[in-house]
Design goal:
With 179 residues, this protein is an alpha/beta fold. It has eight helices and four strands; from the N terminus they run H-H-E-H-E-H-E-H-H-E-H-H. Strand 1, helix 3 and strand 2 form a beta-alpha-beta unit. The two termini are 26 Å apart.
């Protein structure tokens, strides 16, 4: 992926801080500028350069399958691969190659969009003088605290069916059966 958006930079910074806090060394940060071919090449090079690499966090949607292929190709199935977000190709790869992508962290974009739409609708109906009341439904100590922490899920081979049952429409889209 890249580190040019505010979101990507913020996510990376948070991830890096947690790793450093726990004494985990980040051996490389790979930036492929959104080019899947370059990402595949970089993944293979990284695995060759770091024979003791323990884990990979694949942030962008195409990186889960890209790293999984590189890990299989290198015969390094002991590398823990954490993919990010439920994108169709990633979910299909996760289901078709159990154990290569160890987990998918889903930031539940569907919920984010749903909640954002719900808040916007309620704010419009309430009028500006009642916005504080509307926002307190989502952040209990608003306006003192104005940050809403979004939910996320961790999907593994052991629990993906539960996730699929909780979000059937979304899951169906992710596995390619919906619109």
């Amino acid at each position: 992926g890249d580190l040019v958006t505010t979101e990507a930079v913020g996510v990376y910074k948070g991830f890096k801080e947690v790793m450093e806090e726990h004494g985990i060394e980040i051996v490389e940060t790979l930036v492929d500028q959104g080019d899947p071919g370059l990402a595949a090449s970089m993944a293979r090079e990284c695995l060759a350069k770091h024979p003791d690499l323990a884990a990979v966090w694949a942030y962008y949607d195409y990186l889960g399958p890209t790293w999984a292929e590189a890990i299989i190709e290198a015969g390094r199935e002991n590398v823990i691969l954490i993919a990010n977000s439920l994108f169709p190709e990633q979910v299909r790869y996760f289901l078709e190659h159990p154990g290569v992508i160890d987990a998918i962290i889903d930031f539940r974009q569907y919920d984010r969009g749903l909640i954002a739409g719900e808040i916007a609708y309620k704010l419009a109906l309430a009028g500006q003088t009642k916005w504080t009341d509307v926002l307190r439904d989502y952040v209990s100590n608003y306006p003192e605290v104005k940050i809403m922490y979004w939910q996320f899920g961790v999907i593994t081979q052991a629990n993906y069916t539960v996730y699929a049952e909780q979000y059937p429409e979304v899951w169906q889209m992710m596995v390619g059966g919906g619109e």
